[in-house]
Amino acid sequence: MPTYTAQELAERFGLQVQGDATASIHGVATLAHAGAGQLTFLANPRYRPQLADSQASIVVLRADDAAAAPGTTLIAKDPYTAFAKIGALFETVPLREPGIHPSAVIDPSAQVAASAHIGPHVYIGARSVIGESCIIGPGSVVGDDCQLEAGCELLARVSLVARVKLGKRVRIHPGAVLGAEGFGLAMDGGHWIKVPQLGGVRIGDDCEIGANTCIDRGALEDTVLDEDVRVDNLVQIAHNVQIGAHSAIAGSTGIAGSAKIGRYCLLGGSVGVVGHLEICDHVTITGRSVVRNSITEPGEYSSGTPLTDNRTWRKNAARFKQLDALARRILAVSKEKE
């Protein structure tokens, strides 16, 4: 493993050293478990009591926490971001040699860059284009009329069903499905008929899609994720959804068709977004909330009830059914006083 001194890290990432600038590290760990030769960080005040007993050789923290640190520190405005950049120095990435595995099946009309890596049991469909230095992991399917720009990576068992366009450096984790048919149905004489899903999916540069996430293709126009959108595992993004740049979507969230989400939005775990509404830029939705109406003002929004003991919850649930009657009584009393 490589070794870095505090001074080298400070110069590389624009940090300030306090203590022994020659202190060196060869790895990273949590604040509670870091030992000699390791770097850790303090970002959440909840973990400040662990700082005094930390055995880490270097701690990344804010300036107002530095006095409580027993050893060498690196001062950062955002310790978590600084730690992420330093931690990346120790990440091992397997080398993927350019070439096409003998078990891969590639349509004659597809184009594959010579610098791309096509793994075992990959299928690439008609008229699809695989750009420079792309990595198509084992068992992945790239359907017809897909386009991957330079540096994309499908880790394993990723399915691009049809008409999916990926920008540069898009990373997709195992089991994700992009470009499947959207859930479009029309009732005709007591039976459902499918509404043709004729659009595609467009993913911007530097996006990352989590494992087993599904992004449906549009009905007429495309489903669109702008650049640097980050989507966690097990997320459902329905047809014709639009998500603005630099937004992040946590696991198990569901976004219904034709919803529009702005730039720099954060959606917590298990959030539900109703279709055909709009969320403006810089909105945070806390976990397990349901967005039923458009949001036009930046800020943090929540819905649902807090966790409580079951006995209290049952009482409150029973009273919830009485809220309409109670509201009518209050209104009636108010009118009498007038």
Quick overview of this protein structure:
This protein is α/β, with parallel strands linked by helices.
Topology:
Elements: E1 4-5, H1 6-13, E2 16-18, E3 24-25, E4 27-28, E5 38-41, E6 58-61, E7 72-75, H2 79-87, E8 99-100, E9 105-106, E10 111-112, E11 117-118, E12 123-124, E13 129-130, E14 135-136, E15 141-144, E16 147-148, E17 153-154, E18 159-162, E19 164-166, E20 171-172, E21 177-180, E22 185-188, E23 191-194, E24 201-203, E25 208-209, E26 214-216, E27 223-225, E28 230-231, E29 236-237, E30 242-243, E31 248-249, E32 254-255, E33 260-261, E34 266-267, E35 272-273, E36 278-279, E37 283-285, E38 290-291, E39 299-301, H3 310-320, H4 323-337
Parallel strand pairs: 4-5, 5-6, 6-7, 8-11, 9-12, 10-13, 11-14, 12-15, 13-16, 14-17, 15-18, 16-19, 17-20, 18-21, 19-24, 20-25, 21-26, 24-27, 25-28, 26-29, 27-30, 28-31, 29-32, 30-33, 31-34, 32-35, 33-36, 34-37, 35-38, 37-39
Antiparallel strand pairs: 1-3, 2-7, 22-23
Features:
GMPPB_C; 39 strands; UDP N-Acetylglucosamine Acyltransferase, domain 1; 338 residues; ten-stranded parallel beta sheet; Udp-n-acetylmuramoylalanyl-d-glutamate--2,6- Diaminopimelate Ligase, Chain: A, domain 1; flat; N-acyltransferase activity; alpha/beta; Hexapep; UDP-3-O-acylglucosamine N-acyltransferase
Structural notes for this entry:
This protein has 338 residues and is an alpha/beta fold. It folds into three domains: 4-90, MurE/MurF, N-terminal domain (Udp-n-acetylmuramoylalanyl-d-glutamate--2,6- Diaminopimelate Ligase, Chain: A, domain 1); 99-301, UDP N-Acetylglucosamine Acyltransferase, domain 1 (3 Solenoid), CATH 2.160.10; 310-338. The chain has an eleven-stranded parallel sheet with strand order 8-11-14-17-20-25-28-31-34-37-39, with no helix packed on it. A ten-stranded parallel sheet has the order 9-12-15-18-21-26-29-32-35-38, with no helix packed on it. The radius of gyration is 26 Å and the shape is flat. 34% of the residues are buried.
